[in-house]
């Protein structure tokens, strides 16, 4: 199923009637639920990977540009041809087709990295992309109310939180608390890349270990959890 074609159909063919407003436990749709869900890509993971391929190609081309203006033009061209939902449509509700738990690092913006439009992704960010309580609760909301079919936990190169967890002391008690789950995930002697991937994998396992809602969704086949690693230099996301 072509992602852009589906979204164009969603916007032009169905308009407002194709967007439902989800309640908490009992979804309330303007149209049958399957009509909205059919607007999603058939394979959300493939859509993320394909979008990242577009981004990384533009990212690397921009890196070779001679001027800031040329780099900006090359990156802006990435979004040409996208079908963006107008505000009056998005105001009616949301139906993101993937959840991304990732780091708060300013260089790691999922909407850019996956060449996604507004309303495509349900994004949760915190330094070190750990499975903290509010993150898990947010993903439970995504499963119960938004019915997102995919969760990606994504670490990234040069992660400052993981590097801090590999050290001995941190300057504040709250930062010490922040890195506790990272320290539980990594092993002594690991390089930063290996530790970052181990941390992301550990966080992904925590989702089903600590949430019956998420575990049940995985068990019944309505939710897939994957782990990714974003390399800032190349712009590529690889599966862990």
Overall description:
The protein is an alpha/beta fold and 240 residues long. 48% of the residues lie in helices and 11% in strands. It contains eleven helices and five strands. The chain has helices spanning 3-14, 33-37, 44-63, 68-76, 87-90, 110-113, 133-146, 160-165, 173-185, 192-210, 212-219; strands spanning 98-102, 121-125, 150-156, 224-230, 237-239. It has a five-stranded mixed beta sheet, with helices on both faces. Helix 6 links the parallel strand 1 (98-102) and strand 2.
Give a quick summary of the entry.
A hairpin with a 6-residue loop joins strand 4 (224-230) and strand 5. A five-stranded mixed β-sheet has the order 2-1-3-4-5, sandwiched between helices.
Which H/E pattern describes the elements?
A: HHHHHEHEHEHHHHEE
Query: What is the residue-averaged pLDDT?
Result: 83
| Content-based structural category | alpha/beta
Task: Determine Rg (CA atoms, Å).
Answer: 19 Å
Q: What is the oligomeric state here?
A: single chain
* Biggest sheet features: 5 strands, mixed
User: Overall 3D geometry?
Assistant: globular
How far from one another are the termini?
25 Å
Give the fraction of residues assigned to helices: 40-55%
Number of strands: 5
Query: Helix count?
Result: 11
Order of the strands making up the biggest sheet: 2-1-3-4-5
Kindly estimate the percentage of residues that lie in beta strands according to DSSP. 5-15%
Task: List unreliable stretches of 5+ residues.
Answer: 1-36
